[in-house]
Amino acid sequence: MTIQNAHPAFNGPELLRDTEAAAHLRISRTSVWRLHQKGAFPSVRIGGRTLFRRADLNAFIEKQVSGVAA
């Protein structure tokens, strides 16, 4: 469940937990953390949780696609 789904009136960025980010990228949670630690995409800390913006994950995907096409 994402924050947007839980609170339809929320207009901010969609934030994902590591398991959701892994599902979005179709990789393991370990790979999400490894990529994050290497600086591939930032995170946000809220209430002791580390969350990832869907927009940042999408930008990472686009960068990978652009790198392959170049």
Give a structural overview:
The protein is 53% helix and 14% strand. The protein has a domain at 11-51. The radius of gyration is 13 Å and the shape is globular. Strands 1-3-2 form a 3-stranded antiparallel beta sheet. It is built from 4 helices and 3 strands. The mean pLDDT is 88. Helix 2 packs across helix 3. With 70 residues, the chain is α+β, with helices and mostly antiparallel strands.
Question: How would you describe this structure in keywords?
Answer:
70 residues, 4 helices, 3 strands
Shape estimate: globular
Radius of gyration: 13 Å
What percent of the residues sit in helical stretches (DSSP H or I)? 40-55%
Beta percentage is 5-15%
Order of helices and strands: HEHHEEH
What's the average pLDDT?
88
Total number of β-strand segments? 3
Query: What topology, given as strand order, has the largest sheet?
Result: 1-3-2
> How would you characterize the largest beta sheet?
3 strands, antiparallel
Q: Treating each run of at least 4 consecutive H or I residues as one helix, how many helices? A: 4
Low-confidence stretches: none
For the termini, the CA-CA separation is 36 Å
- Report the structural category: alpha+beta
